Amino acid sequence: MTDLRAVLGRVADLADPAHLAPGAADADLARGRRALRRRRTAQGAGALVLVTAAAGVVRNAGPAAEPSRTVAPVPSPTVAEPTPPASTVVPTTPAPVRPAVRLVAYTGRQPSGYTVEYVPQGWEVQGANAFALVIAPKGFADQNPDSFSGKIVVMLRSRDDTGTPVGTPVKVGSGTGYVNRNEEETATVLTYKDTRGNWVQVQVPPSLGWSDKEIARFGEGVTVTRHADPGRG
Amino acid sequence: MSRDEEFRAYVVSARPGLVRTATLLAAGDAHLAEDVVQTSLTKLYVAWPRVRREGPDRYVRRILVNAFTDETRRPWRRERAHAELPDAPASAALSVEDRDAVRRALAALPPRMRAAVVLRYWLEMDVAETAAALGCGQGTVKSQTARGLDRLRELLGPLDGPAPTPTRSTS
Asked: Which of A215, B46, B61, B152 is most exposed by smallest CB count within 10 Å?
């Protein structure tokens, strides 16, 4: 009787000795640094992480297609499920990490580019256009819908971002999404492909206290409509 | 220790094992194995601040399997799978015929079945860990592993492992 592990070892021994040498690690480090630089460049050019303004510039599809910057706040949603009294503390700055904020059914008027089934309890749709849906705590001090810090933002991945998403895999519906946290741990981004083939990105702040699965649960309730636009940059 | 220093130290210690595992996943194709390892370590570096807290081994194994299955889906890889495999380096201890027979037997397994066998019997991961790495259920791991072993036994003769599964007709 032949030992299976020994049998497998015969093929493992086919490894190229050059690939086992310590010098290969330097090349791995160089590749990793280049990949990180590319990702930071792509993010800095107009993806989600903590973009505070000028979203229209990076998401403008061209000179003839200046998007409307007038974003009408959607009326506060009616919470469908019975819930305990909302907190009376109105956050004025992004809150520190705390236990996960519960998802509740969203019954307010749906925006045109993206619709949602759920919102965090005590949060509202602050603004929406073809490029982004912004959800923030009710009464949030920052009422600028082009400012994303401390808020949930839903967008399509930029047309210029064609690389394979990196991150921790998480199940989103019947597919797989990828969760990434920025180095400063100030935002988490879930990237996934929806049932219509759109690459969707959901950015959430740490104040929600959500796990990857909870972010995915929120993402499962997002629907990208034909009015959505991925923009460039 | 900086990110770069930590990452490099990890790679120096872990790379030989990753290359050997990838070589098994690739059924002896050293070029494919190296591509898979490079892809995996690049992703590991980008994710390092988060992964280093969880422990990089589990993460890199999952990424390794995903990188391998992604590579096998590329058109030029599918063509290459039907072509002759690269020549194996000589080994004084083992006959070339033995090694080629094992390599062909592994190559005869579909990629994910091969991955299940390698994770369970080379890395000696348990069923739950293997399921997490493959992104499938534990029942799938068990059935894929059992079928993989059955197939290897058909091709290589008796192997010291779990008892073969009853023969089932397949359509």
From this structure: B46
Shortest Cα distance from A16 to chain B (angstroms)? 6
Give the minimum alpha-carbon distance from A153 to chain B in angstroms, rounded to a whole number.
Answer: 22
B96 touching A (Cβ < 8 Å): no
Residue numbers in A near B106 (CB within 8 A): 8, 11
- Helix A4-12 with B3-25: angle, nearest 10 deg: 110
3-state secondary structure of B68: helix
Tens-place pLDDT, residues B127-137 = 999 998 898 89
Cβ burial, residue A82 (10 Å; 0-12/13-18/19+)? exposed
Tell me the ipTM for this assembly.
Answer: 0.79
Amino acid at A161: D
Q: Is B100 on the interface with A (CB under 8 A)?
A: no
Per-residue pLDDT tens over the stretch B34-82? 999 999 999 999 999 888 877 899 899 999 999 998 888 776 555 444 3
